[in-house]
Amino acid sequence: RETPSASLGKDRADTVIIGGGCVGVSLAYHLAKAGLKDVVLLEKSELTAGSTWHAAGLTTYFHPGINLKKIHSYSIKLYEKLEEETGQVVGFHQPGSIRIASTPTRVDEFKYQMTRTGWHPTEQYLITPEKVQELFPLLKMDTVLAGLYNPGDGHIDPYSLTMALAAGARKYGAQLNYPVQVTNLNSRSDGTWDVETPLGTIRAKRIVNAAGFWAREIGKMIGLQHPLIPVHHQYVVTSTIPEVKALKTELPVIRDLEGSYYLRQERDGLLFGPYESEEKMKLQDSWVTNGVPPGFGKELFESDLDRIMEHIEAAMEMVPVLKNADIVNTIAGPITYSPDILPMVGPHQGVRNYWVAIGFGYGIIHAGGIGKYLSDWILEGEPPFDLIEVDPNRYGKWTTTEYTAAKARESYGFNNIVGYPKEERFAGRPTERTSGLYDLLKSKCSMGFHAGWEQPHWFYKPGDETGYKPSFRRTNWFDPVGREYKQVMEKVGVIDLSPFGKFKIKGTDSVKLLDHLFANVVPKVGSTNISHMLTPRGKVYAELTVSQLYPGEFMLVTGSGSELHDLRWIEEEVTRGGYKVEIENVTDEMGVLGVAGPYARQILQKLTSEDLSDGSFKFLQSRHLKLSNIALTAIRISYTGELGWELYHRKEDSIGLYNAIMEAGQKEGIDNFGTYALNALRLEKGFRAWGAEMNCDTNPLEAGLEYFIKLNK
């Protein structure tokens, strides 16, 4: 049992962590263990209050992604030795887990996942129905086609886990103070924070919001609207079942993906938890509008078995011994969801020294690994590996409360959906982020979602099978994308590139700043180059195109998914080096059209008096000109590898510009193309893409970027 210490103990700290769930306590443990002095954790009621204490505690090596699997793996390895290190029992069971495939498509998915297992040392096997039955003898096998088996998976007691991490954190010198509520946060001009509580104020070098479903309230104190929403998750525990009691070894955890539930042994009974559909699931949206009730800590919601009845029936069908079992407990508690179900982890753009570790739908399995990941990042100035998928800056002003609610419903309901390559999800779309061409193009193509934007993936022609039809095999976009690819290689194509992240930088120190930020040389006025921001360890943090439009005034362009990720890094360097510059994010105001293919020059020349010939307008030059009387900045560059220009213009001019280009290209057979064809073209040209061929896991030489890296700088 813990004895609370309601005191601050000190008025200065290096790092103040707000929130004493398993994630916050894990961060305190890792920072202190790594030798950071003055780590203070503040919890407003008691450790584990909120979502941790009532969690089902599942632990799995499995994750469909690549680097998030490292987080899972680290957590499990840590939990295995925590008891020995801290002397605290953690109640860790590792009977393994099996994901059940009962449709041919699900078998395809498992095969697809097996192709990725070589990335990791953790064991994962595709097993036959016979092997599934051997491992879990209580299953009815009628529909089982295969299993995906992860030895070492299991479940842990979340309360005991948190207490063991807390004991470790204290052992290494961290202070865990509760009940101490944070009442206000004030940022100071030197980048430090004043953290106000009823017991006094602590001045901190940095603060970390790990406040679970209170994270929104903490964010609001500094003017941020974190896109989080609590959802109701229920799981059911049965009394003793004779057939379970008779078993010699503990049953593996099963995940019946078509039935959309997990099921595991709990003592001599079973515990199972469903993820109901988006129509049936329940959000606690009143907490978003009115805030979390002040006293809420270790309370639960009213259970509602009717809502999960179809899943209970599916479980009884798959595990028939459940039919005669008594339900002794139904837990209905809040867990926090972000729009895409992944947490938000890392430093936040636009606020200095404010970090987050929030939005955990799976906090128990993520706690250990995220504590270590964040601790490394805080202490070393860069992330230990790339996790752009959990970057808090993947969201922006476009992430409204309505969007968050629609997406959380969808993400919860889709918890066990088949994970196809190139997956699209349609709830909450479109957001306010639409390009000037959206209304014109939306019925002519299959749109993809990119950081809030809608962007054409591929275009329809008569006779095509239209719409989004995902598959693990060749699908409906295969031939149309080939057609667009041929169009750009042989004639000319137009693509909407408006989602690019776009920044303007000017000021007396602009050249000095860019020379410091990038590994390439600073381009001359009227020129453009490809430049990379490298981390202290020499990993590729970002790739941007840099153009010097006027003396000392630059435009930087990055991929849509990296907009705020890159801007945060730039802003931090500006502050750290005291550079006198102004940075303007013009992403939403500016449209971009790409025109590429052998006839690109011929068509654009019809619309301007400017000489576009090769002698006059060379590759990687930029120029201000008018096309069809529309003022724009043209850069001679194309990600397709063909002759082409990118045309940067005011968003309100997009339709006029697009129509003029399409009109001028009739004779040459001009047509649209989308990002799928663009990707095929750039791969064949050998152009690298950030997030695919390079990221924070690669150095630029491994990625084949020597040409852009000036080692004499």
Automatic annotation (TrEMBL):
Pfam families reported for this sequence: DAO, FAO_M, GCV_T
Database matches in Gene3D superfamilies: Aminomethyltransferase beta-barrel domains, D-Amino Acid Oxidase, subunit A, domain 2, FAD/NAD(P)-binding domain, Probable tRNA modification gtpase trme, domain 1
Residue ranges annotated for the FAD dependent oxidoreductase central domain, each copy included: 380-433
InterPro entries: FAD-dep_OxRdtase (IPR006076), FAD/NAD-bd_sf (IPR036188), FAO_M (IPR032503), GcvT/YgfZ/DmdA (IPR028896), GCVT_N (IPR006222), TrmE/GcvT-like (IPR027266)
Superkingdom of source: Eukaryota
GO cellular component: mitochondrion
Span of domain FAD dependent oxidoreductase: 14-377
Residues of the GCVT N-terminal domain: 442-713
Name by which UniProt lists this protein: Dimethylglycine dehydrogenase, mitochondrial
Upper taxonomic lineage: Eukaryota, Metazoa, Chordata, Craniata, Vertebrata
